[in-house]
Amino acid sequence: MQTRLKVHLALFAVSLLYAATFTIAKLAMPLYIKPFAFILMRVSVATVCIYLFHRHYVKGAIKDKKDLWPLFVSAVFGVAGNMLLFFKGLSITSPINASVLMLNTPIFVLVFASIILKEKLTFNKIAGLLTAALGAILLMGGYKFEFNQDTVLGDIFVMLNAIIYAFYLVYAKRLMVKYHPLTVTLYAFFFGFFLVLPFGLTQTLEIDFAHLPLSIWGAIVFVTVGATFLTYVFNAYALKHASSSLVGSYIYLQPVLATLIAILSGKDFLSLEKFISMLIVFAGVFWASYKWPQKA
């Protein structure tokens, strides 16, 4: 299988897992598990999974001690900071506001990539991302987006999350190229665990694990293993073999897949407006990643 196809499959899997998370995580949060406790559980379980997988199949190491600082920075922006800000922001603002604000991530990725990695700002990338953003906003009812005093703090947290996660996708790219992607991810999560521990420890100790329903345990496994371990591993692989802009552009597929999941589960219906919005998103992502044949 060609590497380019593997990259697209990995990014599609990430979008699908994240899309399902919005529905599945709500089963457990906040009734059974509070937000910061869920974050600590996500980071803890994912760290163990990455370590075991890395130990058996990769066995790489960080040879240059100067790279430990960039790895710590990656943990701050890519693991601890973005998770804490997003969950805290989501608890204050509305789901629509949070969803629309998160669509800024690929735009910031494009900006950071052009500054830090000197990635060329092509017409395809800019036009494709803007087209996908338009489709995603229409799909989620972005016209209902509004600021007010009750949500403004949450909106700020979510926007900061979008910015720092975009920075991580660009900043970690060089590390992913220098080392095995799983090695970089392991160190980032190791540092990230100690960063989120003070925030989530108290809430974690409040969980009544002995009386959690089986469905909630299923939600925990999905979010910690599927939506954390697998998504970060797939994203790491994609960052090693593709541009940060392409990785960021797949964020626009998440609302499309989330809508499809809701439709298939009977919680939503497919209207003509939603179908057209989905087509716009797919067209935008394709446009952003398409490479025109070189002239002879």
Distance between the termini: 27 Å
Q: What is the count of structural domains?
A: 1
N-to-C SSE series? Answer: HHHHHHHHHHHHH
Discrete helix count: 13
Residues in β-strands, percent: under 5%
- How many beta-strand segments? 0
Flag low-confidence runs. Answer: none
Identify the quaternary structure here.
Answer: single chain
Share in helix: over 70%
List the helices and strands and how they pair.
Layout: H1 3-28, H2 35-57, H3 68-92, H4 95-102, H5 105-117, H6 123-139, H7 152-171, H8 173-178, H9 181-205, H10 214-241, H11 244-249, H12 253-264, H13 272-289
Helix pairs in contact: 1-10, 1-12, 2-3, 2-9, 2-10, 3-7, 3-9, 4-7, 5-7, 6-13, 9-10
Descriptive notes:
With 296 residues, the chain is mainly α. It is 77% helix and 0% strand. Helix 2 (35-57) crosses helix 10. The chain starts with a helix and ends in a 7-residue tail after the last helix.
List keywords for this structure.
296 residues, mainly alpha, 77% helix, 0% strand, globular
Brief characterization of the structure:
This protein is mostly helical. The chain has 13 helices and no strands. The model has no long low-confidence stretch (mean pLDDT 83).
